[in-house]
Amino acid sequence: MPRITAERRAANRSQIVAAARRCFSRDGFHQTSMPDIAAEAGVSVGAPYRYFAGKEEIILEIAGDAFRVMFDPVEHFVDAAGDVTIADLVAAAIEPVSGDVAVDGAGQAVPVDELLRCAVQAWGELLRHEGLRQHAEAGFEHVRGRIADALRTGQRAGSVPADLDPDRGARIVMALLHGFVLQYTAFGLDDTAGFTRDVRIALSDAGLFR
Questions:
Q1: Is the pLDDT of residue 1 over 50?
Q2: SS3 122
Q3: Residue 75: is its pLDDT beyond 90?
Q4: What pTM, to 2 d.p., does this model score?
Q5: Residues pairing with 105 in the sheet
């Protein structure tokens, strides 16, 4: 039997991840079994184990994709921008999770709705899964530090109030993003443009946006 090519192996792995993401977003992490994932992917029961040690490893990968979709655009914006405000950062964070399709870590187009439903479930998993919590905390602290640096740059440029603590300001940005994702996923908030506009108005009234 010929050996499987690297390209075919990558495609098979992506197929299993996509199937797991559909199952998780539809039925939840704990209601989904590895046989369920195999059936969704249209492969044999043992096939997922050729690529993953078990379900928790797949959960870690999908949760990582979901958090990456949320936070990578913020980092790109911070790299490109000089004179920023808190509202700019919130808008940069919300924009990529408000569409229909995003790109996962393997470069595959994936439905945003599936990723965000998995992200919301992953937040609950942080309370019981130490490995996932450590991964999420490391990613959170990295992005929070980048946002805080951007706010310091904004303070030097005069676009961010001088008396704002950048580290706490970064938490405001993260909290608004997390709140948006929860409302978008669980409660049908889909007016992204309106939400972003009102964030600017609210932060202006609070003196956090000039």
A1: no
A2: helix
A3: no
A4: 0.80
A5: none
